[in-house]
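Morning. Coffee machine broken again, so started the prediction first thing and wrote up yesterday's gels while waiting. Chain of 328 residues, entered below exactly as on the submission form.
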Amino acid sequence: MVGVIWFAVFSGASGLAWSYAAMVAIQFLFGVGFGGEWTASAALLMESVPARARPLASSIMMAGYEVGFFAAAAAQALILPHYGWRVLFFIGIVPALLAIFIRIGVPESPVWLQAQAERGNRREQPAVARPRFRLSAAAIQALAFMLVLQFQNAAIYSFYPTLLRTVHGFTPESVFPLVAAYCVGSLIGKPTCGWAVGRFGERRVLFLYLAITVLDIVPFASGNGLAWLLAASFIMGGFGNSVFALVPHFLAQRFPSRTRSLGMGLSYAFASAGQGLASFVVPWGGATFGLARAIKGCVIFGSALVALVAARQPAELPGATMEGDEAT
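Came back before lunch.
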């Protein structure tokens, strides 16, 4: 609840920014809240659903990004030309209302409740060492996976509207159909990815989605004509972006219950570092080689790194089985 209210307040405050430095500071504070909210909600979801439903639940959660991306693109097309960019940020205050729903309708996870009960029982027993975060092979894989995956994914979507405007000549209003195609592809692709993981396994689905991403990146970035760009955008949303459907489930398996939230939070921080790296590398490459080539190069390189990091599963997945799984 704190995370939701925090990022909503600083989203609205972004519309009051009086300088570039002020915007950077406000966006930093926005990121603190959003990162905390994502970590808490992802851990809560993975600990609250039965084991068999976790891949699909993971994908449905991550599909929420596309709902927001779609709504933001539509808001930009309708609001930006008439009311300016500040109003777009003011709309970001609305999610604060979700805190009311969370307070009334969302219980704590069974895993956390059980841990609290055990902690209460231990107070009456001799002192026991508190659990510490362990940088196991599974944890290292999770951190590296998020770093390279977010680098690859940021290269796909962060500069897509800019690519459409500067390279393909679209206006800010006319990018909406292409962004919408990307979002619709993701809304279909992410639940499909979650279903496929439950049926065929995590790594097989991941490698397939990465291969299709690499094949699609050339028409996605350099396609000629609206029809080609629409088709490539839909495919990229359906496969390239839909890899993120795996993230909550992938991370939850790699940390034990007592340090899961911390581990997922650290993983999110590494993802932010990957996005920051892409935010530097893609514009630098764009100035040197052209934006389309920079995006293609980063996506191909990033996809190869993701496949390399995920190629071997650690011998132990401490979060593969959670407390209460036997009962579900």
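The chain has 14 helices and no strands. Going to sketch it on the whiteboard this afternoon.
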